[in-house]
Structure formats: structure tokens, C-alpha cells
Design brief:
Blueprint lengths: L3 H8 L11 H5 L3 H23 L2 H17 L10 H20 L7 H6 L18 H18 L4 H12 L4 H8 L3 H26 L8
Length: 216
């Protein structure tokens, strides 16, 4: 595992193709197979952790700790879920523990928000621009920023659900396994989180433009 820390750091900034892993080699503790897993999963897992924490340095630390714990605990993986679901559960738990410990409020600057821009499900919160008009794109960018500012104000449980389900587009069942809750609980929290987001965004646009009817 001597090279894993460097591998995690560099892999978090890349987005390689995503072939199948050699699960049996991983379960045997094969370091080469594990480093391959690190390279493949670091970018997306880092995004999830960063969106929870809003702190770049701490997110890198949590990412490294996630893979370290995964390597040490690989023999506890029971194949009851996808390996990546199990891996993300470790990372999410570590990120949320860090957030609670530091009582960080995830105050984001403009550069942080730009790095966190998601591809939302079509029609979920934002409308996609109809053509590449600079004014339309500027307006869309502002709306993305407003959505992220609203997301970081959500309670921790709601924020995590929105990140995993709507931004990273994991399935309801996958999110349930990552968080150790039922699929029904995921649906309830997601419904409430979306409602809270819509209320915050509607309030913003109603305040800034009395004739606005929000983003719907």
C-alpha cells in the first residue's frame, strides 16, 4: 500500500474509463487490483465527499482514509451489494463524521461551486438552455450556483440524499445501502429535501422578481 496515497491524490483529478474490476483479486488482497480500483473510483467518490464537506483538503484526507479502510476491511465485504456501494458507504460515513466533528457549515466560494457543478436530471430543478446563447448560459450558471447554495443549507441527511440521488444519480436501492436505511426512507427524505429546495429557490426568485413563479 506504499503507493496508494499518491495514487488516490492523482486519481481524484482524473476521469478514466470504467471497466469491470477483478473482484476476486481484490478479495484476495491483491494490491495491484486495489490500486486499479482507486484509479477508477477516486474521481466520482471525491466529488461526493467534497459535496458533503465543501472543503478540498479535508475531502482529499477523507478520500485517502476511505481507501485505506476499504483495503484493510476488504475481507468483510459480503457481496450483498455492489463493491462500489460498499466503498461509497465507507466514504460517506467518514465524511459525515468529519462534518459533525468539525461542525463545518460548508461555506463555499465561487471556485468551489464551479467545481461542484452537476448534471441534474432533466427538468429536476433547472431548465437546460435551448441554445448556446451567452446570456442564457450565464443565467443557467447563476441558477446552478443558487441550487448549490440551497443544497448546502439543507440538513445533513437531506443534503446527502440529494447529492447521491439527484446529482450523482445512484439508484434508490444503492443510496439505501450506502446510508444503511430502507428504500422507503430514501424516498421520503428525498421528497422532503426536494420540497425544501424548491421552497428556498421559489422564495429567492419571488424576492428578487415579484412576478417570478420559480423554476418550475
Amino acid at each position: 500500500m506504499a503507493t496508494t496515497k499518491a495514487t488516490v491524490s492523482s486519481a481524484a483529478n482524473s476521469s478514466p474509463p470504467k471497466p469491470e474490476y477483478d473482484l476476486e483479486a481484490l478479495l484476495r488482497g491483491d494490491e495491484e487490483a486495489f490500486e486499479y480500483l482507486v484509479v477508477q473510483e477516486s474521481p466520482r467518490l471525491y466529488r461526493v465527499i467534497f459535496r458533503i464537506l465543501g472543503d478540498e483538503e479535508e475531502s482529499q484526507n477523507i478520500l485517502q482514509e476511505t481507501f485505506l479502510q476499504a483495503f484493510q476491511r476488504m475481507d468483510t465485504f459480503r457481496k450483498e451489494s455492489k463493491l462500489t456501494t460498499w466503498l461509497y458507504a465507507i466514504g460517506i460515513n467518514l465524511a459525515r463524521a468529519s462534518l459533525r466533528k468539525s461542525k463545518r457549515l460548508s461555506s463555499l466560494n465561487d471556485q468551489d461551486v464551479e467545481r461542484m457543478q452537476p448534471s441534474f436530471s432533466k427538468g429536476m430543478f433547472l431548465e437546460s438552455p435551448h441554445h448556446w446563447d451567452p446570456l442564457k448560459l450565464a443565467e443557467q450558471s447563476d441558477r446552478h450556483r443558487l441550487v448549490h447554495q440551497a443544497i448546502v443549507k439543507l440538513p445533513e441527511d437531506y443534503k446527502t440524499i440529494v447529492i447521491l440521488r439527484d446529482i450523482e444519480e445512484h439508484s434508490t436501492d444503492e443510496v439505501a445501502k450506502m446510508l444503511g436505511i430502507t428504500s422507503g426512507a430514501v424516498r421520503v427524505r428525498l421528497h422532503r429535501a426536494r420540497g425544501a429546495l424548491r421552497s428556498m429557490l421559489d422564495a429567492h426568485f419571488s424576492h428578487s422578481n415579484p412576478s417570478s413563479e420559480g423554476l418550475s
